[in-house]
Amino acid sequence: MKALILVGGFGTRLRPLTLSVPKPLVDFGNKPMILHQIEALKEVGVTEVVLAINYQPEVMLTFLKDFESKLGIKITCSQETEPLGTAGPLALARDKLIDSSGEPFFVLNSDVISEYPFAELVKFHKSHGGEATIMVTKVDEPSKYGVVVMEEETGKVDRFVEKPKVFVGNKINAGIYLLNPSVLDRIELKPTSIEKEVFPKIAADRKLFGMVLPGFWMDIGQPKDYITGLRLYLDSLRKKSSSKLAAGPQIVGNVLVHESAVIGEGCLIGPDVAIGPGCVVESGVRLSRCTVMRGARIKKHSCISSSIIGWHSTVGQWARVENMTILGEDVHVGDEIYSNGGVVLPHKEIKSSILKPEIVM
Q1: Cα(34)–Cα(11) distance, integer angstroms
Q2: Is residue 69 pLDDT above 90, yes or no?
Q3: Helix, strand or coil, per DSSP, at residue 183
Q4: What count of other Cβ atoms lies within 10 Å of the Cβ of residue 237?
Q5: At CA 159, angle to CA 158 and CA 163, rounded to 5?
Q6: Are 121 and 129 in contact (CB under 8 A)?
Q7: Nearest to residue 104, comparing CAs of 174, 183, 188?
Q8: Which residues in 257-271 are b (16+ Cβ under 10 Å) and which e?
Q9: Which of 66, 230, 304, 335 is 20 to 30 Å from 91 at the Cα level?
């Protein structure tokens, strides 16, 4: 089987992290976002992954070449010269996706994190005999999204309602699809939306089915949702393979610590924290609801909550970093500095406090 991952453009909502690497390579739970997807695809028998991308394909491919051999899976790029929306890239990659097997292929949005129940998806898709299956997830506030109206028993999709004013249902498109090759005949090579143009037509032909995604789901394309997504991901790890999580007197709740990270004495870490490779957390530090990426150093007695600390950054002694502060790569926060929601671009030194949320160039 094959899979197409819609990588797309610049990842502006996750700046300043995406100023250093393309968005799918930003770490999430101590590994690049896209690797979570590729590993799950490999597990269900996918042999080739195509990345639909219009920005920095060299960087992506150089990085992913390492994983090709480790995972034993072929990874190629399909590069757009102009943005083609969410369906155009399928037409562009047509020759890479179709082979003589006639097997369906996966399409994923690269920002989506979940438990990726691909085996169940394949089973459901083959059982209903339709042309396409989309995964749907239940949300509390459906009025913010496009709602999928479908038959409860069969999963057959009736229609889509964009940002409904009155309640029509609480299931939304989760950005994970399994499509028969025939779907490609419905897509032209031009900027097209799969959600707004292609799926409604398949639904009108009564050949589109929806499967409710078990477990958690999050679009982690922006910082607030990234932090929420980390909580859901660690919670799922706790249920599935809790041996991967840290334990001990300094740990509260779900915490993921890379084996090469060093943690000093008298720290209190958690809940919902990921500490990446080569990080150094000195003594007496308090961390909660945050990610500390590869090679960062957190100095004595500092306190970090609801924030993202980028690669190779430093947080000074007695500093306090909170309220969705995001430090890009190689940012250095001085001793005793307070950051309230500062968004700091790479290679900056912060010598005075950031008292209200702002971007620091």
Answers
A1: 13
A2: no
A3: helix
A4: 16
A5: 145
A6: no
A7: 183
A8: bbeebebeeebebbe
A9: 66
Alpha-carbon gap, residue 358 to 342, rounded angstroms: 5
Average pLDDT, the chain: 89
Rounded CA-CA distance 299/240 in Å is: 33
pLDDT tens per residue across span 329-347:
999 999 999 999 999 999 9
pLDDT of residue 10: 62
Distance CA 264, CA 103 (A): 52
What is the percent of the chain where pLDDT is above 70?
98
Q: What end-to-end distance do the CA atoms of the chain give, in Å?
A: 45
pLDDT digits (tens, 9 = 90+) for 236-291: 999 887 888 999 999 999 999 999 999 999 999 989 999 999 999 999 999 999 99
- pTM, two decimals, is 0.88
pLDDT at res. 11? 63
In a 10 Å sphere around its CB, with 0-12 CB exposed, 13-18 middle and 19+ buried, how is residue 242 labelled?
exposed
In whole angstroms, what separates CA 201 from the centre of its chain?
A: 28
- Rounded to 10°, the helix 33-43/118-128 angle is 50
Pair of tokens at residue 339:
């950051």
Three-class secondary structure of residue 161 per DSSP = strand
> Which stretches of the chain are DSSP H helices?
33-43, 57-71, 88-92, 94-97, 118-128, 199-204, 223-241
Report d(CA 80, CA 88) in Å as an integer: 9
Judged on CB neighbours under 10 Å (0-12, 13-18, 19+), 10 is middle
